[in-house]
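Quick one: Spore maturation protein from Clostridium paridis, structure tokens please.
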Amino acid sequence: MINYIWFFMIALGIIVGLITGKGAEISKGIVDSSGASVELIIGLVGMMCFWCGVMKVAEKSGLTEKLAKVLRPILRVIFKDAARDEKALGAIVMNITANMFGLSNAATPFGIKAMEEMQRLNKDKSKASNDMALFLVLNAACIQLIPSTIISIRAACDSKNPAIIIIPAMVATGGAAVVGVVASKILQRYF
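--- reply ---
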């Protein structure tokens, strides 16, 4: 459906531009934005390779596993049913840890596995459990210690200090996670 909406908006914009006699400006805008997109992606690929390498070093050095050990006791308190199942809790921990280090591609399989494990524990298979909803909220908050994607985009756009976003990202995502967990726990009592 969204493809139809985008197609309609683009087609309508081109038609209106042609009717108003701005066809040359539309063509120039399309070519300019295409070139700028390619430049951004090339710059972004280099930075993403660098950050993926840094994250792989963190993973191989055991830093992500140490963070997982710190998270386990906290998650045991937050999650009710999943905390009793080592497979489900392990997948949750790995997903959140990967997200914290900006490894969203690595976090996705762990997130899918965590949902599968929580569905296995779910008593009512027709709807999401409270733990599943809470996990989704934590995933949406996406707590970031190193927001590598944002740093990469800022660097590709020639930011003077692309890493200045680290502390604000920690505060914003941490605050979103806390508010999300509190709201989920309150709503669990009523739904």
